[in-house]
User: What shape does this take?
Amino acid sequence: MASTQQHGEPIPRQSASVRDHRLAVIAQHFPEAIAEGKVDWDALRAALGDLVDDAPERYTFSWAGKRDAIRLLQTPTSATLLPSPDESVEWDTTRNAFIAGDNLEVLKLLYKPYFGRVKMIYIDPPYNTGNDFIYPDNYADPLDAYLRLTGQKDAQGNLLTSTPETSGRYHSAWLSMMYPRLFLARQLLRDDGVIFVSIDDHEVHNLRLLMNEVFGEENFVATIIWQKVYSPKNTARHFSEDHDYILAYARSATSWMPNALPRTEEADARYSNPDDDPRGPWMSDNLTARNYYSEGQYEVASPSGRRFRPSTGSYWRVKYERFVQLDADGRIWWGADGNGMPRLKRFLSDVKQGIVPQTLWKYVDVGHTQEAKQELLGLVDFESTENVLDTVKPSRLIERMLRLATTSCEGDIVVDFFAGGCSTAHAVLKLNHEDGGNRRFICVQLPEPLPKAEARLSTIADIGMERIRRVIARMRDEDAGKLDLSTRETPEDLGFRVYRLAPSHYRPWEGVEGETPEEYAGQMALFTDPLRPGWTAAGLLWEVALREGYGLDATIERVVAAAANAVYRVTDPDREQNFLICLDDRLHADTPAALGLGRDDVFVCRDAALDDALAANLALQCRLKTV
Assistant: This one.
């Protein structure tokens, strides 16, 4: 009979705690400020000295409900992710993932396995226009709100609500929704990572302040203007809105640099070679500027002897000695007749590395809203036009971000936790297909019900998954019969795993009914095995893997050596770590020997499957953890 004593180290039943992690960071840098597991503010103030602002008034950004948003962020989730191989494509080999569920709960689950690993995040959150969906604020149990919202429980109250501008918490509710999600997003980014956030005029001012607080004002990169329409709206009351914004923030602005954009035929066409220079095509550039330069006020002479000085208020960009060197090297253009104002020759061969990105993105280069909708309609067969997403983004827009923020061959992870119609997944697959890359995507979308349920589509998450499947199928059709001339080191990843947010496999503690010792003992007996009735091995395997910090692309394989028990090896390919797990009702005494467990091996089993003697032996052989 199994002992009622806990054997080994228990697997956590909740996600990693953001608060505990931040406390550990303070303890690492300011050990004198930690007393009995809590922060001693006086000691921390003393350690920071003059850096502490004690003024009664200071610059700050706050809103109604901010404390609740912080408390929600700091509350670990007890939820888990259930694998759905039947909805997936190439489950066994793919490293891409799509998750149907509330993104805050999902981000908490991803916190431990993906901390500091994500290269780029793109999100297109609700713009808070008064009509779009706002996620429910349930600070007591966000997962419960999610379950009711998606029809898995009876709805109590109006959860699918908009936020009309007459609401007293119009902006505050939106900020409370965004704050914990952006905070967790920052934790996922690498030091050289970057986040792009789409927004319009309704909340761009608040979003900028919020991101300054979360990411630090010093890590602001740019406000990008996206020209989202190709023709004016004549029905506009005041102005026809032609653009949206994209805010770009780096995890560390000193560590992140954008890649140069590929040169276009249009850009190269600006270069010519009218003087047959052996160095190839070139274009001329102004040698004067308005910025004052003390050594930029000299006079120069053209080959014909004509004298030139900068116009009033302008200065040569280079000092005289440098000008002479450039002229001697044939890098000064004096005009076709040799008698014009000198200009600098910039050769195409010198700028082949690419184009420096600008903050104005025109629709001819990155697409517009109509293109985005047509792109979606060309991939997903909608039975009702009411279900077509209005705010979907063109894949070319996100491709531009991917070119700026990722590289093709380093397995960069790209996350979108407001995935919608999955333009981000589409862009990743398309760019990988084009340049032979191995970027990976993780997309998260709330299964918000569509206005009219269809045979294949009942939620927005269904639209996203269907689009990814169609993109993959189209790419395969295009490649069918073609000779593979790629130089890929690994096969192209044309697949994705589907996971769904679900309650934990652990039975929640509901307290003890009654006051007698017999009633208390009876209630405690139910928790000898803490698992819910009807739990599945496949689901529990993934819950344990997530709690242990293993990624969504982890592999699970049956260990043949343990014939007496079903034992599986879970491996994280990025971290090159693994653990062994057995979920049988009883662990046979000969199983550990068959596995050849060593001191560095992690072995997980159900606590109820062990007796005291076997548990003691296992603890001596390996790192024993129990469910």
